[in-house]
Amino acid sequence: MEGGIEKRTAEIAVIGLGYIGLPTAIMFANAGFNVTGYEIRKEVVDKINSGEAHIVEPEIDELLKNAVESGRLRATSDPEDIRGKDVYIICVQTPLNEDKTPNLSYLESAVKTVAKAMKRGSLIVIESTVPPLTTVKMAKLIEEITGLKAGEDFYMVHAPERVMPGRIFKELVYNSRIFGGITPESAELAEKLYRSFVKGQTFKTNSTVSEVVKLMENTFRDVNIALANEFAYLAHQYGIDAFEAIELANTHPRVKIHVPGIGVGGHCLPKDPHLLVWPARDDFGLIRLAREVNDGMPLLAKDLLFEALKTVNLPPEKAVVAVLGLAYKGDSDDTRNSPAKAFVEAVEEDVAEVRTYDPFVEGTHGSIEDVLEGADAAVIATDHSEFKSLNWEELGKLMRTRIIIDGRHVVEMPPEGFIFKGIGRGEY
Ligand SMILES: NC(=O)c1ccc[n+]([C@@H]2O[C@H](COP(=O)([O-])OP(=O)(O)OC[C@H]3O[C@@H](n4cnc5c(N)ncnc54)[C@H](O)[C@@H]3O)[C@@H](O)[C@H]2O)c1
């Protein structure tokens, strides 16, 4: 296998061609390997084979075209096409169930597919974010299905992905990577393989450590955002601007407070803290509480809206509310777990009408003027660049009542003639 990696003759199968799997498959193909992408969504397979990406990401069109036209990347939904490969890289989704427990059904199904296709000596890499001890459990599942012995007859590694959408192709090359093997040889082999395109630092450890490391990273961010959000609540109580206070606190050399806002969204941050604590025996209060604080932020935005409506004696059931932004982060079209959607759900039954406008998301109002015409309040739920330089004096003329609720600290100076409330902006 080592020789195959060096000479790029090792055959690779990537399982799951989504936001992580497709860029990973492209990188290995463009590094000179023959890559077969296995994906259960037939329409995704067809699109990729015609050289078209089904996800939005800078540089992806050219890199995918290169990989497909060179003949080194082919997608399939036939498991026969991934039989006997040297390497299997699993990149399927690992979401939460309704009750916030991990849904590992996609992973288990992918592992079973791999177990039926692999050969003695194959290296299996799990890139998906998983609860601690999952890689060891999946190795046992493969042992049961194949009769092979993990660490002796096949290699297995957890290699977590740390890229950020919008910067995936840069970060795949320059981020540091961790390879958690079920044996040291497994980690060593995976490190050699990824060195074919990774220029960042690489580290080897065991699979449970690497699972925990990935989950710690996102939990660290989630808990710190929750702390900033709690500071925002306090700022409202004391009638001060939390952003001014945080900026001043951050002048301390050992303090780095995060940014408060209407909530935490995306595929990873809202779920990964749950994956970290789920297999543990005790109740890890801080991590769970942080999740609750962050999930509660759309309700703070709702409170601010209703307070503002009260000051103009407009009952909520008569109010037309325009939500600006549906994506979970600025200049992105990704609405997965978006707090903007949670805000809409929280208010839609209580107000006369909720309209949404997002320049990146289909199915919303066509323009900002459209959405604000006759509205009583504009609620900014996403920090898209477009929202940072709006001419509120002109837009205010379209509105029936001039209320702005800023959930993302987008409006620096509240415009004249508006009732303005923002999360963490207690002084206004
Ligand atoms: N998206 C990110 O920014 C990001 C960053 C770091 C880590 N991760 C982790 O990476 C993993 C994948 O995330 P994603 O955003 O790429 O998910 P995704 O939903 O975009 O892609 C997963 C793909 O796997 C396919 N799939 C599901 N079951 C399959 C099976 N049994 N066989 C073949 N294909 C199958 C799905 O159809 C889908 O196309 C998750 O565990 C996630 O937490 C994601």
TrEMBL record:
InterPro entries for the chain: 6-PGluconate_DH-like_C_sf, NAD(P)-bd_dom_sf, UDP-Glc/GDP-Man, UDP-Glc/GDP-Man_DH_C, UDP-Glc/GDP-Man_DH_C_sf, UDP-Glc/GDP-Man_DH_dimer, UDP-Glc/GDP-Man_DH_N, UDP-sugar_DH
Chain ranges of the UDP-glucose/GDP-mannose dehydrogenase C-terminal domain: 322-413
GO MF annotation: an example: oxidoreductase activity, acting on the CH-CH group of donors, NAD or NADP as acceptor
EC code: 1.1.1.336
Known catalytic reactions: UDP-N-acetyl-alpha-D-mannosamine + 2 NAD(+) + H2O = UDP-N-acetyl-alpha-D-mannosaminouronate + 2 NADH + 3 H(+)
BP GO terms, sorted: polysaccharide biosynthetic process
Annotated keywords: Membrane, NAD, Oxidoreductase, Transmembrane, Transmembrane helix
Transmembrane segments: 12-33
Family the entry assigns: Belongs to the UDP-glucose/GDP-mannose dehydrogenase family.
NCBIfam families from the UniProt entry: NDP-sugDHase, UDPMaNacDH_Arch
Protein name: UDP-N-acetyl-D-mannosamine dehydrogenase
Organism, as annotated: Thermococcus pacificus
